[in-house]
């Protein structure tokens, strides 16, 4: 089976937020779907290994910040490639409280849900949430999963349902590549990597030039 066919399904790129006690936490997700319009309900798929999963289960609430094509891609590194167990993911990130949950300022819209049901699979929990608030924040196209991979050149965290370990398959294996050891971003710009300034940072996870490895 060619799992790359799943990339032809329509996905967005979202930051899911909830509360860890009184502290905001969250992660990146792409598997979200509106189920009904009245009352409005949303299904969210979340890996069991994500710290955010257990926090949603305890709090019974989650918010969705819809990233746009103009959103800072470093948000994906901030929320997608480190655990809320270890860091405060909202530190230094502009956000506002909506219905008591943090939502990202640098997004094109948000949705806040109360969990009303859930279904367990072998690897993921599917939370069903009833929408209690939502609004548009900016007039910018929503970032799609395809845009993230093809334009931003980002990769999926290992806990994402769409993660493929062979994501670089089909690339020119004869050419040397510089790859971020944190998030897997492949540098392929015209300027040779060696000529980049020491201040260069990965556009996906924000790590420094020293985190890149030649492959």
Automatic annotation (TrEMBL):
Lineage: Bacteria, Bacillati, Bacillota, Clostridia, Lachnospirales
Domain Rubredoxin-like: residue ranges: 175-215
Pfam family, one: RUBY_RBDX
UniProt xrefs under InterPro entries: Flavin_Rdtase-like_dom, NADH-dep_flavin_reductase, Rubredoxin-like_dom, Rubredoxin_dom, RUBY_RBDX, Split_barrel_FMN-bd
Protein name: Flavin reductase
Cofactor(s) for this UniProt protein: Fe(3+)
GO molecular function, one term: iron ion binding
Domain of life according to the entry: Bacteria
Annotated keywords: Electron transport, Iron, Metal-binding, Oxidoreductase, Transport
């Amino acid at each position: 089976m060619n799992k790359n066919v799943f990339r032809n399904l329509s996905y967005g790129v979202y930051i899911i937020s909830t509360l860890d006690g009184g502290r905001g936490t969250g992660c990146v997700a792409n598997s979200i779907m509106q189920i009904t319009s009245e009352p409005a309900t949303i299904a969210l798929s979340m890996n069991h290994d994500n710290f955010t999963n257990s926090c949603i289960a305890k709090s019974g609430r989650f918010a969705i910040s819809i990233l746009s094509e103009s959103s800072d891609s470093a948000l994906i590194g901030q929320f997608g490639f480190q655990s809320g167990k270890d860091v405060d993911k909202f530190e230094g990130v502009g956000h506002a409280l909506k219905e008591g949950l943090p939502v990202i300022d640098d997004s094109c819209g948000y949705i806040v849900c109360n969990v009303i049901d859930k279904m367990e699979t072998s690897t993921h929990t599917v939370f069903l949430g009833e929408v209690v608030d939502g609004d548009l924040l900016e007039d910018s196209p929503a970032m799609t999963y395809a845009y993230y991979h093809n334009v931003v050149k980002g990769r999926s965290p290992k806990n994402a349902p769409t993660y493929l370990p062979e994501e670089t398959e089909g690339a020119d294996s004869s050419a040397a590549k510089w790859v971020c050891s944190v998030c897997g971003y492949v540098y392929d710009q015209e300027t040779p990597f060696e000529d980049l300034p020491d201040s260069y940072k990965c556009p996906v996870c924000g790590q420094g030039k020293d985190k890149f490895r030649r492959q």
